[in-house]
Design brief:
5-stranded parallel beta sheet; 287 residues; EC 3.-.-.-; alpha/beta; NODB_dom; Glyco_hydro/deAcase_b/a-brl; metal-binding; Polysacc_deacetylase_ArnD; 12% strand; two-stranded antiparallel ribbon
Length: 287
């Protein structure tokens, strides 16, 4: 009887051990799978792009070299250091990209002449217009903000002024991946509010010192070239020269300006003037 009880007891113990072993074997794959999932999650976290670090790196890469010039209160371009060449002019093209901006950019590129191209947002509504702006930027030209619809800003409410300015910055950033650093008010008419918005958006407010292509008598390539190179526009009431070191030249995306552009650049160079690189002009981030 005792032997029978011992045999039964041994059998029961053996079955219990086997059952436990089987249970452990079944549970191990579950733990292994969980560990492997944790490792995969960890790898995924390590492989995720570090957005903040990349953005910081990008902003450093895009940082301009130390500026050599700044925009004065009267819109002229003046050297920051006395050893910097002062006999320069700044070329600016407004109301782009309409019909001729891309050709004008190509002309300037061939002549190795720099300029700022100021955008009106209503010219950025089609894919073709966006592509034109992208090409101009990829040629190395600086892009500026000239409002969305070219209004007289002081005539608008503060909310409308803000919309006119910020909307264009958003449009430009969508196309070229960066926001403008220069702002030019239509008709040269700013308000305290528009200046504040430009400052908050990180833009230097810039008017001009002379330009003639929007006066009817100078909507002719030959007459325009003469006026821009001499600085004189007697048929616009300017019978003296406005051409001087640091002059800020206003031009537009117009047929006659496009035709005259190469001769204007060559004529200014014949007088000893360099076309200043806008990337060497101090911006708000550098002040």
């Amino acid at each position: 009887m005792k032997k029978a009880i011992l045999v039964v007891t041994f059998i029961f113990i053996g079955l219990f051990i086997v059952a436990c072993g089987s249970s452990d074997e079944k549970s191990q794959p579950a733990h292994a799978d969980k560990a492997e999932e944790n490792k995969q999650d960890q790898r995924k976290e390590e492989q995720k792009p570090q957005k903040e670090d990349n953005q910081t790196e990008k902003s450093v890469v895009n940082e301009a070299p130390n500026p050599k010039y700044k925009v004065s209160d009267n819109a002229t371009i003046v050297p920051i250091d006395e050893n910097t060449n002062e006999k320069v002019v700044l070329l600016t093209i407004d109301d782009i990209p309409d019909k001729h901006a891309l050709d004008m950019a190509k002309t300037l590129k061939e002549l190795e002449a720099n300029a700022i191209f100021f955008v009106n947002g209503h010219f950025l509504e089609t894919e073709e217009q966006k592509d034109m702006l992208k090409q101009i930027h990829e040629m190395g030209f600086v892009i500026g903000n000239h409002t969305y619809s070219h209004p007289k800003l002081p005539d608008l409410t503060e909310q409308e002024q803000t919309e006119e300015i910020v909307r264009v910055n958003d449009q430009i950033e969508e196309v070229i991946g960066e926001r403008p650093k220069f702002f030019r008010a239509p008709h040269g008419m700013n308000s305290d509010h528009s200046r504040q918005v430009a400052k908050e958006q990180g833009m230097v407010v810039m008017n001009w010192t002379y330009g003639y292509d929007y006066f009817a008598p100078y909507q002719d390539a030959t007459k325009l070239k003469k006026a821009m190179v001499s600085g004189e526009g007697p048929e616009a009431g300017v019978d003296y020269s406005l051409l001087k070191p640091g002059a800020n030249l206003l031009m537009h995306d117009r047929e006659w300006t496009n035709e005259a552009l190469a001769d204007i650049v060559k004529g200014l160079r014949d007088k000893g003037y360099e076309m200043v690189d806008p990337k060497q002009i101090q911006t708000l981030s550098k002040q």
